[in-house]
Amino acid sequence: MALYAELHRHLGGSVVPRVLWRYFERHATDLIARFAEYSEFEDFYTRPRNTLDEYLELHTLVESVQTVETLPYFIYRLLRGAYIFENLAYLELRYTPYLRTPEHLSQPERIDKMAEIVEVVGKASHLPEYPIVTSQILCMHTRLPLEVNRAIIDLAVQNKQYVCGIDVAGGDRYYEERLDEWISLYDYARSLGVNTTGHLYETTAGCYPQLLPYLMRIGHGIQIPLLYPELLADVARRGQCLEVCPTTYLKTGTLEDIRQLKLVFDQCFDAGVDIAICTDNAGLHNVRLPFEYENLLTYDIISFGQLQACQNAAFRHAFAWPYAQPPASLLSGLLKPESPKVLAMRD
């Protein structure tokens, strides 16, 4: 029974280790030549890193094999697992389309190729046997020039049947040197009616209050309640939701102990700020969304009531969920005992 919404999952980090290993065995053995067996690869792929930069390097491993030809292979397996093992009813996949285009092409040619990537991801994401509502968030990137990032926004506008918003990826500590540029890009996106989220306040190096007014949701945002709780009132007033990805902060060295998140949840609930619990990179972590829920409960970071509030918030803040209620509410109406009058009419 599909019940949950996932608002923050990267396409590059969504491939579980076993699926990636099998692909490499069949098509790119050179990429796993240094691993004697699968267990060594899994340990390498999922182990914690010391910094966010080191962690993000793993994305390049997957991006190199996620091409227009192979994306359907990876997305089919992603959605199959999301439906069967995670009970997802809604999934937003985020990625940088430019980084899935052939590197040997010129920049203008790669920009033109991005539309094909978006279409392939969109069509591959609609599987009748795994009926999940899906949409894409296109990520600008700190390594890409202004003209490419602006083209990504234009692409989102032109492909609303597949795309529900934009983001910026590549490490939040790199925003400062181009901060005016990021502000202008987000302002441009909002002027075109594009939904916005962004990796912000994930680490202590990524705290830029200047960008907050341009975001509808905040990717991670945990440093706001941890270091700048005075900002929470404005976050609540703007109706912004934090996309909190618990396992990520242990994998990137951002937090030493998951129990540090208790302050994040407590401060946000007290201030009336919504939180959507997400996985970020389910493949890199080898962790699925229900485990994130269970982990937060096990460590007494949240209560069952708070968990349900976060699950409902995820649907409220979903950019492309087409219904007014989450699926649990819709199902409860379907499963109500029928009235005696209806039963008598059937007899």
CATH architecture: Alpha-Beta Barrel
Largest sheet: 4 strands, parallel
Indicate the proportion of strand residues.
5-15%
Going by CATH, what is the homologous superfamily? Answer: Metal-dependent hydrolases
Tally of DSSP helical segments: 16
What is the number of domains?
1
- Gap between N and C termini: 30 Å
Shape: globular
Mean of all residue-level pLDDT scores: 91
Q: What does the model show?
A:
The chain is α/β, with parallel strands linked by helices and 347 residues long. It has a single domain (4-328), classed as Alpha-Beta Barrel (TIM Barrel). The protein is built from 16 helices and 8 strands. The strands form 2 sheets. A 4-stranded parallel sheet has the order 1-2-3-4. It has a 4-stranded parallel sheet with strand order 5-6-7-8. Helix 4 (71-86) packs parallel to helix 5 (107-124). This is adenosine deaminase. Its EC number is 3.5.4.4.
Concise overview:
The protein is of the alpha/beta class and 347 residues long.
List the helices and strands and how they pair.
Blueprint (H helix, E strand, L loop, with lengths): L3 E7 L6 H11 L10 H9 L5 H12 L7 H16 L1 E8 L11 H18 L8 E9 L4 H13 L4 E7 L9 H13 L7 E2 L16 E4 L2 H5 L4 H6 L3 E4 L1 H6 L9 H11 L2 E4 L4 H4 L3 H10 L5 H13 L10 H8 L5 H7 L1
Helix pairs in contact: 4-5, 5-6, 6-7
GO biological process, one term: hypoxanthine salvage
Protein name: adenosine deaminase
Family: Belongs to the metallo-dependent hydrolases superfamily. Adenosine and AMP deaminases family.
